[in-house]
Amino acid sequence: MTQKHVGRRMTRTEDPRLLTGQALFVDDVQMPGMLHAAFLRSDYAHARLVSIDVSAARERPGVVAVFTAEDMGDDWKHGPPLVSPPPTVEDIVFHSRTHVPLVKDKVRHAGEPLAIVIAESRYIAEDAVEDIWVELEPLEAVVDLEKALDPGAPLVHDDLESNLAAHLVQEKGDYEAAKAQADLVVKRRIYIDRGAAGAMENRGIVAHWDVRAQQLTLWDTTQAPIPIRNGLAAMFGLSSHQVRVIAPFVGGGFGPKIMMYYPEEVLLTWATLKMGRPIKWIEDRRENFFATTQERTQVHYGEMALTKEGRILGVRHDFLHDTGAYDPYGLTVPLNTQSHAMGAYDVPNYSSELKVVFTNKTIVTPVRGAGRPQGIFLAERLLDIAARELGIDRLEIRKKNLIPPDAFPYEHKIIDQAFAPLVFDSGNYLATLERAAAAIGYEKFIAEEQPRLRAEGKHVGLGIVSFVETTGVGPYEGARVTVETDGRVSVATGVGTQGQGHFTSFAQIVADQLGISPRDVRMVTGDTAEFHWGTGTFASRGSVVAANAINAAALSVRNKVLKLASKILETPEEELELADGQVRVADLPHRAIELGELAAMANPLRGAVEPGTEPGLESTDYFGPKYGATANGAHAMILEVDPETMMIEIKRYVTVEDCGTVLNPLILEGQIHGGVALGIANSYYEQLVFDENGQLLNASLADYLIPSATEIPPIEVLHEETRSPLNPLGSKGAGEAGTIPVPSLFAQALEDALQDYGLEILEMPMSPNRLFELLHEESKTP
Amino acid sequence: MNIEYPISVTVNGTRYDRDVEPRLLLSDFLRHDLGLTGTHVGCEHGVCGACTVLFNGQPVRSCLMFAVQADGQEVTTVEALGTPDDLHPIQEAFLEAHGAQCGYCTPGFFMTLVPFLEENPDPTEEEIREAIAGNLCRCTGYQHIVDAVKLAAAKLGS
User: Fold this and answer.
1) Which of A332, A358, A520, B113 lies at a 20 to 30 A Cα distance from A143?
2) Fold of A155-195+294-402
3) Residue A568: how many CB atoms within 10 A of its CB?
4) Can you tell me the distance from the alpha carbon of B27 to that of A617, in angstroms, rounded to the nearest whole number?
5) What is the rounded distance in angstroms from the CA atom of residue A50 to the CA atom of residue A217?
6) Around Cβ A399, how many Cβ atoms within 10 Å?
7) A733-766 in b/e burial notation, b at 16+ Cβ within 10 A?
8) CB pair distance less than 8 Å for B143 and A667
């Protein structure tokens, strides 16, 4: 038998094209007669549009068209909500206010588009943007999350009574009763601020309405090509088969590229339908800072009730979540926060009151982590503070409270982001944490190394935290697997790819089912002409939902192969095997038929076939999980702080991840490394700083500090492998695992390194400046 | 504004004669006028390093230069390194060590690394990290890139 491919450290089949600069990205699309778009965007965060005069812009040579909201007539509409509010929760308040293609009356965040210029070149289009005369009457901006709900605060949406976008209470057990019996209740205010996803490729679109073919093609840097296609078709009265959306190679997604429909997606489609010429728009980095969605701002008033032995009796947190100027993404992010606010722990009682708040800031949708880091930060911080107050070791208090292996499936009795009951399916949380503790040398560090280093005057600290990651949510994905007559296999699936190695890990699954080399799989992702059912790449679901759909389709093809080969080789199916691109009789390997030959036989050109025969060796199958698979893990690190500059050096960083069956360890490690790097960025380097007028003060990569290779340390990646019972492959997602626990880990390690100062870190991100301020605010000296 | 000037630039060994506006960025000239789209653009303000090319053998940000500045000069882009069937040793190393994820920043890393590994054929990890500190990557956390550079150094040295 040939060796199994799933689980192997296989190098990537997509790499030769990517590494030689031959892979197609959206900005590489060139078409004859192509025009270029640029946008006039609002400088103000909150303002009334008084007038806009585009006449000078229209006269500039090379300008083909300039459009404002008025020019769109009846086609000007608010976007449909991308995610609806949960239907299953009582007394929910949800005010859906979605964004518009171009501002008609009021600007609600800086960077909101006011007009689109379409010209013969991007240079001319940008010149013409400067020709537009716009009068904006600035209004007081809603920036601070807590002040936004004060009576008399300016309103982001004038038709609402307040800036409250949503209100939702979730309860498990009886927190107040548990609190009454607690020996200790710790209460803290916790604040987490905004960051950018910062994909190296900005967004981009090429839209082309082919008048003669009556066919619309959109190349789009989206994580969700199929919903974009369906939505644009519905919006513009086209059949979905007249619309082809291609997400080619996409230069990083990290969440914001799932948002839809961005105003630019609607406008370029509208304009090409009107003009019949291909139009390209490529976002520049400055636009990306204003117009691409962001995440993370929340204020929590959290408390945790415990016994004196350190058992958690309950968690309560009332929190505010900043959704920005609109809320097209519903409650996904704060529901994720609630799903993670009990961490990896057995928490019998939970109470959470969520208020979602409109502000005059860029729209909020998931960014890698998607509400989870905030939830884990709350749980881990409160537990650290409780441990300190109870005099219990931080590792011990975690071990005491982790959900034990025999408690799965563990029901949380609240709903998750998919509106399904929150159930953790499987795991060995204790083993994961203990492995991390052993790897970092917890006992020895605390007992020997730290005291020795401290005696040398070094501020060295350790952090260790555990976490869960809800992954692989529904509704479903699908795939089509086809054996070609040359023996190679084509696979098409609807999810797009933004660097996750889908071409390779999906091919490994198909290779195992069909006995071929993964190099003989031609993979297509993200092209609606190839496959048009599915939702997209988000919520760490590719290796769960799409992978299991591909596995199902490959299994169906395998069964077809066996059935046909059994007839031709006159051998019962049980005695056949698929290997080396052939079907053969297990004991008589010379009695074999090539897969390609079999595919040709399955699609005869003449002759009769039995009724009900499906031609070819092809199958389309789907996978939809009952609920998401939940991964877990533990991170540990040792860092040193320079007390003069507050600069840090990460001495060691260890992760232990349990994402069930590992499809390709090499790719998984890459996912973890990149996730941790974003987590480190979120913890100590990156923060979007808005002033009181809602102006973003650091909208460039020179001012917004994405870490480079000198800031990110080597990361040791270890695995536990507890198969998920929820899908045949046993996989769980891993795309966000690296990011989720890092802020909580940083806070603990920084406190440990600066333990003489009695510092409590209750906010993220930190930075050298902020750490310095905190130490001086409390005017504490060692 | 629309006056064009004739320039003659040698890119990857081929001489190109074109008339260009003085404000045309070198990055746009390479990508859109010459169709060499392997050079990517990430920030257009000289920070991310995705658009790095060799200018007379030295790495430069092609988004911070005008095409007219390249008149009479030699430019080398990722297209000069290898092909899918015949990768350059640095590309091979990135393949083997999984140094690329989305692949958008990768050509810029290569163009930084080519002269670096020529000048420093046996670098330490610290030297590697310093050398690539001007190239941003959001996907990899840099670790597999560092592994790939070590591997590339070994391949080039042997």
Assistant:
1) A332
2) Aldehyde Oxidoreductase; domain 4 (3.30.365)
3) 12
4) 47
5) 36
6) 16
7) bbbbbbbbbbbbbbbbbbbbbbeebebebbbbbb
8) no
Full-model pTM: 0.96
Q: What is the bridge-based pairing of β-strands A63-68 and A113-119?
A: antiparallel
How is residue A195 annotated by DSSP?
B
SS3 call for A214: coil
Average pLDDT, chain A: 95
pLDDT in tens, A471-501: 988 889 999 999 999 999 999 998 888 998 9
Q: What are the tens digits of pLDDT across the range A137-170?
A: 999 999 999 999 999 999 999 999 999 999 999 9
Residue found under tokens 């995440």 = A295
Please compute the mean of the pLDDT values over residues A75-82 and round it to a whole number.
87
B98 & B125 share domain: yes
Nearest to B38 among A22, A197, A670 (CB): A22
What is the distance in angstroms between the Cα of A443 and the nearest Cα belonging to chain B?
Answer: 28
| Contact assessment for residue A127 and residue A56, using Cβ atoms and an 8 Å cutoff | no
* C-beta separation of B90 from B27 below 8 A: no
Kindly give the residue spans of alpha helices, DSSP state H, lying in B1-142.
26-28, 89-96, 106-119, 125-131
pLDDT for B94-145, tens place per residue? 999 999 999 999 999 999 999 999 999 999 999 999 999 999 999 999 999 9
Put simply, the answer to whether B50 touches A200 (Cβ < 8 Å) is yes
CATH 3.30.365.10 domain position(s) in chain A = 155-195+294-402, 198-292, 427-473+628-782, 474-623
Dihedral angle computed from the Cα positions of residues A618, A619, A620 and A621, in that order, rounded to the nearest 10 degrees: -150
Does the ipTM exceed 0.85? yes
Indicate the fold that domain A198-292 takes in CATH.
Aldehyde Oxidoreductase; domain 4 (3.30.365)
Q: Go through B47-61 and write b for each residue having 16 or more CB atoms within 10 A of its CB, e for each that does not.
A: bbbbbbbbbeeebbb
Residue A782's pLDDT band (cuts 50, 70, 90): very low
Q: What distance in Å separates residue B38's CA from the closest CA in chain A?
A: 4
A278 pLDDT above the threshold of 60: yes
* Residue B84 located in a structural domain: no
Question: At residue A702, what is the residue type?
Answer: A
Average pLDDT over residues B46-69: 98
Q: Which fold has domain A427-473+628-782?
A: Aldehyde Oxidoreductase; domain 4 (3.30.365)
Residue A336, CA distances (Å) to A67, A222, A342, A624, A632 in order: 39, 22, 11, 20, 15
- Residue ending a domain, among B59, B78, B97, is B78
Token pair recorded at residue A673: 């490394």
Tell me the three state secondary structure of residue B75: strand
Spatial separation of the C-alpha atoms in residues A127 and A119, rounded to whole Å: 10
**SS3 label, residue A434:** helix
Domain end position, chosen among B78, B102, B126: B78
User: What is the DSSP-derived secondary structure letter of residue A147?
Assistant: G
Query: Distance between the two ends of chain B, CA-based, in angstroms?
Result: 53
User: Both B27 and B64 in a single domain?
Assistant: yes
Average pLDDT of span A176-182: 97
Q: What residue type is A243 in one-letter code?
A: V
Q: Which domain holds residue B119?
A: 89-157
The two tokens of residue A495 are 């999810």
**How many other CB atoms sit within 10 Å of the CB of residue A775?**
18
> Cβ–Cβ of A201/B107 closer than 8 Å?
no
pLDDT of residue A779: 56
- pLDDT given at position A209: 98
The conformation of residue A527, written as its DSSP 8-state character, comes to B
CA separation for the pair A626, A173 (Å, rounded)? 24
**Rounded distance, CA A617 to CA A629, Å?**
31
Interface test with A, best of B51, B143, B147, B151 (most A CBs within 10 A): B143
CATH 3.30.365.10 fits A474-623, yes or no: yes
Domain match, B17 and B40 both: yes
